[in-house]
Hints:
Helix content: 25-40%
Shape: globular
Strand content: 25-35%
Number of strands: 14
CATH superfamily of the domain at 170-264: CO dehydrogenase flavoprotein, C-terminal domain
Largest sheet: 5 strands, antiparallel
CATH topology of the domain at 170-264: Enolase-like, domain 1
Order of helices and strands: EHEHEEEHHHHHHEEHEEEEEEEHHH
Mean pLDDT: 96
CATH architecture of the domain at 170-264: 2-Layer Sandwich
CATH class of the domain at 170-264: Alpha Beta
Number of helices: 12
Amino acid sequence: MYSFNYQKVxxxxxxxxxxxxxxxxxxxxxxxxxxASMKLRLANPGQVVDLGEVxxxxxxxxxxxxxxIGAMTRHAEVAASADVKKAIPALAALAGGxxxxxxxxxxxxxxxxxxxxxxxxxxxxxVGLNATVHTNKRKxxxxxxxxxxxxxxxxxxxxxxxIEFPAPKRxxxxxxxxxxSRYAIxxxxxxxxxxxxxxAVTGAGPCVFRQKDMEKALASKFAADSVANVKQxxxxxxxxxxxxxxxxxxxxxxxxxxAVAAALG
Length: 265
């Protein structure tokens, strides 16, 4: 690990000021990616700004038909929340399947979404539920937030403060996980929303994406059989030591069928 300056802040405004003064600074949320990268010398920030004691970034609020989760809320807190389990049980279940106990008790929803790892679980929920990402500067629709491999719409000095999830009629998330890391080799979040069915896929490509052919099929009939014959092209999908692009394409259909079946109960 390279040397760096460490700063603990008490507010979002202080954090924004700190990273505004130093373009080389990095925000520390749960640290599940940043700290590991620093240990391996894959990242070399000159300054680390710790968000761990910013109270305005924590907590879960239910208002009407939406659930708003503060950026520094831990995965374990989302998984255990009675409010989340009642309003969006699929989101609580997704959080409970992230990594292992250490990761769930340290990792945060804001850190995961900002990092946009291609195999992360939360991006599928954000897109699948048509969530809104709140920052210290604006609100960003899910469709506009994820741009590519580890790339988001966040600008310099912009900090995620919360994520607002509309409650769907029904939803479920299923993933084929890496047995070691529990990252999604392929994960599919299916939601029957007020605007129609949404199918979000993570792990398969460089970035989370919607499977619109499956959405059209589910709009006609929300049933597992509706997506059974919808084939995902393997063009542009990830291919690595864990799974080929062809196998990932096959898994998209398999996980989608399971997710729809789970959503139907």
